[in-house]
Sequence to fold (339 residues):
Amino acid sequence: MKKILSDKYNVRQARMEDVPLIHQLEQKKSLHYHGVPGFSLARLQNEYETPGFEIEKSIHLVENQEGKLAALVEVWDESNPPVHPYVWMSVDPDLENQGLESYLLDWAEERTRQVLDRVDPELRVAMRTHSDQAIESCGKAKLTAGMKLIRHSFRMRIEMEDPPPKPVWPEKISLRLCDPEKEAYAVYEVDDEVFQDHFGYIKEHPEEGYKKFKHSMTGDDSYDPSLWFLAMDGEEIIGICLCRKYGLEDKDTGYISSLGVKRPWRRQGIALALLQHAFGEFYQRGKREVDLGVDASSLTGATDLYLKAGMYVLRQYDMYEKELRPGRDASVTSLETSE
Fold:
C-alpha cells in the first residue's frame, strides 16, 4: 500500500541547485549524531555529478510548508547491470519516527523497480541500503518495510600520538608515487582487479568503470596525486594505496579511499607496508587521524589487517536488502564467486 504523507509536507524531485540545501541537512545529521560536519559541499556536488546519475530522477525531497528540507531519499542505479540499486535516506533528526522514513522507502522501492526492465531476466535484483547504526529510526523503518539486515561495514580510524612504524617491504618490492596524468587507467585496472574479491562487486564495462573511478577519485578538492602510492614488482603495479587529503567527516582527518594488492602478491606484508607508509605520510603532514571504510566481514581479511595496524572501529553501518526479483546473483558473494 502506497504511503501518504501528512499535508504539512510537500514533495518534489531534486535539482542541482538544491545541493547546498541537501548538504545542510546532511551536516545537521552528522553534527547531531557524531559532532562532526561530515561531507564537504564539494564532495557532495561531485558525487551527484557521477556519470550516469540523474539527480532529477533519482533524488526525492520532502519539504515543510515553509520550504525547509525535512528529508530526502536517493536511488543509485547507474551501475551496469543495476542488479543492486542502492538507496540512501536522510531525515532531519528533529523529525524522526513521524512517518517520513516509511514514505521515503516506499518511494525508493517504486523507483528501484524501474531497473527490472534493464536487467537480464535470469539475474537476481535486490535493492540495498546502509544505515548508520547510531540512527535507530532508520534501521527500524527498513525492517518494517520488509528489508533484511544482511551485513555490516565499518568506518575505521587510527589516532597517532607518535610516528607510526616504518614499513618493511618484501624483497624486490618497491614503492613509488603514481603519475595520474599517465597512469590513471592502469591504476583503475589494478583497483578493479583487487576489488573483484569484495562482497557485492559487479563487473562493469571498463570504459564506464574508468569514467566513474576517475570522476570519484579526482573530481573534488580532496584529491591530491602526491597521496597515490604504488607498490611495484619491477615495472608492474601490484598494489595501490590511494588516499585523499581529507576524509568524509572533517578536514583534519586523512582518508584512504582504496587499498589493495593483487592476488599473487598477497600474504607478504605488502598491504600492511602500504598502510603504514600512508600513515607516515599523513603524520608528516600534521594529520594525527586517518580513516578508511571496510566490509566488516571482508572476504580478504582486510578488517584483521587494519586492527593489526592499530586502527579501531569508529562507526558501524548496517546493510539491508530487499529482493525485487529472484534469480542468479551476478555479484560477488564469496572468493569462489569472484574467480
